[in-house]
Amino acid sequence: MGKQTNIRLDDAVKAAAEDRAKRRGLSLQGYVADLIEADVNQSRAAFMAGAATFLAGYADTFEAEVGEDRYPGLPEGLMESAPRDAA
């Protein structure tokens, strides 16, 4: 269950937000929650994309430092056919 949060809005902003919420068939609370969730998810996706790009750019360096055993415990011979990103 979600936690309750209080926010202060000036009258004009609150009226505009209530109007937009109503047009979407949402309560003001639901509208604000959707906006925050969309912003958080967008930030999370941007971070993950950046992290993946960073890791891809330094894969050879990480491999040289850490070693070849990307799949500890994998039976002998399967490493060659395992996808690079399976670990």
Q: How many DSSP E strands?
A: 0
Report the total helices.
3
In round numbers, the mean pLDDT is 83
Low-confidence stretches: none
Layout of SSEs?
Layout: H1 11-23, H2 28-57, H3 59-66
Helix pairs in contact: 1-2
Key features?
single chain, 87 residues, mainly alpha, 59% helix, elongated
Short account of what is shown:
By secondary structure, the protein is an all-alpha fold. Helices cover 59% and strands 0% of the residues.
Word description of this protein:
With about 90 residues, this protein is mainly alpha-helical. It contains three helices and no strands. Helix content is about 60%, strand content about 0%. The mean pLDDT is about 85. The chain has a domain at about 10-65.
